[in-house]
Design brief:
- There is one protein chain.
- This protein is an alpha/beta fold.
- It contains 10 helices and 10 strands.
- Strand 7, helix 7 and strand 8 form a beta-alpha-beta unit.
Length: 284
């Protein structure tokens, strides 16, 4: 089974960014590109509550009307999805992707992505979905469940595409982040991109040794690499370094075994991803 770049799109303002970053990744990785749109046909909570308040004389008729309304809404959502997928495919072709594929599924986003995990080499999603403030199953609002469920790299992107020139990896010497450094070193996705390695912690012999290993690994693979050890609160320190050096792609391990783990477990994950203006690549 060929692993591919999977791009999840909806009607949010992030969809164009998803298309362009997915096309860039597909070309860089020389991997097939598939656009995915998931239609969640679960009935609205408000309508279910309404049906429970219908009087005896009109209950059956009104329930039929609600069922008919759900059916019409589902058809409209499916047609809207088909149009979005068609537009996404055309945009990717214009970006240079030869034959992008499209898929439309009914269900929930997380369950669908889990079903397609074996086919996925990289998942590209927007930081927020079109109804992130209303529903729990759209992009952004269910971000942590997506990260916890999938064991594939996830690229969270911004609204507007900018070809990355400087990437930063938050490094703590854990197995996950060491694998991340090795992945960066050999991945064609990072060809020509300067890589910054940042350890948030004290200037100790162990941290210096870990940083030296990371820089050597990257430089041996031909990367322009530099690094730093910075003391401070993890999120603020990383964001400060990012702004100071013009970093336009942040790379982090989804689950480490240090203070970075606490950054990436729970509500802080969503908060940081929503606050940063640059794309974030999460590694498992």
């Amino acid at each position: 089974m060929t692993e591919q770049v999977m791009a999840a799109i909806d009607g949010s303002q992030f969809s164009e960014g998803v298309c362009d970053y997915a096309a860039w990744a597909s070309l860089a990785l020389d991997a097939p590109l598939t656009f995915l749109h998931v239609v969640d046909n679960h009935p609205q909570t408000a309508e279910a509550d309404l049906s429970g308040n219908i009087g005896l004389g009109s209950r059956e008729h009104l329930l039929e009307e609600l069922a008919s309304l759900d059916e019409r809404r589902a058809k409209v959502a499916q047609e809207q999805g088909r149009l979005m997928l068609k537009a996404a495919k055309e945009r990717a072709v214009a970006d240079g992707v030869a034959s992008p594929a499209t898929r439309q599924r009914n269900g929930t986003l997380v369950e669908t992505l889990e079903e397609l995990e074996r086919e996925t080499r990289l998942l590209v999603v927007g930081k927020r979905g079109e109804t992130a403030h209303q529903a729990s199953e759209h992009l952004g609002s269910n971000l942590e469940r997506v990260v916890r469920t999938l064991h594939r790299p996830i690229l969270m992107v911004s609204e507007t595409f900018h070809r990355p020139e400087r990437a930063m990896i938050a490094f703590d010497g854990s197995k996950t982040t060491r694998k991340g450094v090795e992945m960066l070193a050999k991945s064609p996705l990072f060809a020509g991109i300067a890589v910054h390695v940042v350890i948030v912690g004290a200037e100790t012999g162990d941290n210096r040794s870990q940083l030296d290993w990371a820089l050597a690994t990257l430089r041996e693979a031909g990367h322009d690499a530099e690094g730093a050890i910075r003391a401070g609160e993890v999120e603020a320190t990383l964001r400060g370094y990012q702004a100071e050096h013009g970093i336009d792609l942040l790379v982090m391990g989804a689950y480490g075994h240090s203070r970075i783990r606490h950054l990436l477990v729970g509500s802080t994950t969503t908060a940081m991803l929503r606050q940063t203006e640059q794309p974030v690549l999460l590694l498992r």
